[in-house]
Amino acid sequence: MLNTLVGEAVIDTVSSLCPRCGKPSLATIFDREGKVYQRTECTCHTPSEGLIFSDTALYLRLEEWNRLVFPETPAAGMPSSSLCAATETGSQNEPCLAVIDITNRCNFKCPVCFAEAKGEGSHYFLEMEVVVKMLKALLNRPVPCRSVQFSGGEPTLHPDFPKILRAARDLGFTHLQVATNGSRFVDPDYAKLCEESGLHTLYLQFDGMNDDVYLKMRGQRLLDKKIAAVRSIEQTNMRLVLVPTIMSSVNADQLGSIFQFALEHNKFVTGISIQPCADVGRVAVDKNGVEPFNLAAMARCFGEQTGLTRFPDDWFPLNSISLLSRAIERVRNEKAHPPLSDAHCSIGTFFYVDDNNKPYCLSSFFDLGRFLRGMADIKPQAEQGLIARQISRIRQFGQLSKCLDLGKTPPGLTFQRLLGSLDSWEDKYAGRSAGWEKRGFNGIFVAGMHFMDAHSYNLRRLRRCIIQYVATDGQLIPFCSYNAGARLRESEELTRITGKLPLGGYSENSAQAGELSV
Q1: Average pLDDT of 257-273?
Q2: pTM of the prediction?
């Protein structure tokens, strides 16, 4: 629909919250000169408007993936601005990754910290007993979540962090992550201790390859310490994901150099998780009038700086992988846990890295879009007989092979190794196991995850959230209602600081409902 007065084409209308007062409001998402904006209408304030995506064509392409991933979703009508508190803050999805803040203490005071963590003032360290109850609540859900990230603050400052890792490992969690500034991992002995305690992956704050960036983003020179932390991890069998927070006026030009660093350390660096700076928490770096960094800007900048990707052809939403998860579920007759996030939450691409450290974008020789769309057509086993199931598997194998362009396939990459590489996506341990190089290949993902702020808040995205915080009462809170919108982080941290934590233990039924028995 075109508003001829201002040249705006309406793309969608969604439920949101007023950026000023938090009141449930309606928001219009619209195109203006090839870019996407969101305007939120509130009965108490003048409309609030901001750029949310710098390429309309890519935005609409992501919407096509949403329709494929969520085929049961009815055609969008006019959403209601009268929403209850539960709808405003909850997700309809089980988490693919649960986050547990074990402290709000930090040894840095970064100008761009969305958690506003600091070294002084009121602090908490969660007691081991509380952390264990929170972990057990994740396992007692209808679909157990066995992947957890410990965060904060700086979680490695918790005096019992290795003990917490061991408890999670012994409870049966299959993937343990830590979101860290890396300061403690400069010590190789500490890195080894964490590995022995069960830690699998570090999500390492890594904003660029020069100290001018760190002075502006983190308030101090940190590059040497970041590199030292990487070298410590390379003495273990753990893996790294580099996590740059990107602000247009500061470090948008660093994507190419960060990727080059990841490439040089690709035996241990499995990916780069780019986070456009959201307007939440403590943000003190001047934007200098530059439009805010977003996922479209990320995809375009990465291609321009590396020459390795085409815009927008080589970029896919995270939720497209759910089509593969569903296919595996149907063929194996097993319950999968697909990443059913909204397509606008995260997009990425993937690289095969040969023995000479030369990267090849997967979609330059493999028709990933065709393959994933084909996965959506696999029928459940319940609808097929034994022979039909076998034929279906052969047919899908043939479909996969047709998606591989043998004329463009990098030297040394066989069809079998390509199939073997899927093991590391399903099983995080596979990529660290002995003989992995013969079964799969080295690869690096580059993805962006754009967390919402007050100006981009969209309750449809929130209801599809798959990264959720665990509260001390066992409830799960979507990432973006914990840190933006309702910003439930503040009340949860107050509970922890004052020591008014829930008493008693989790019963199986109450944990499934996300509550504590008292």
Answers
A1: 96
A2: 0.88
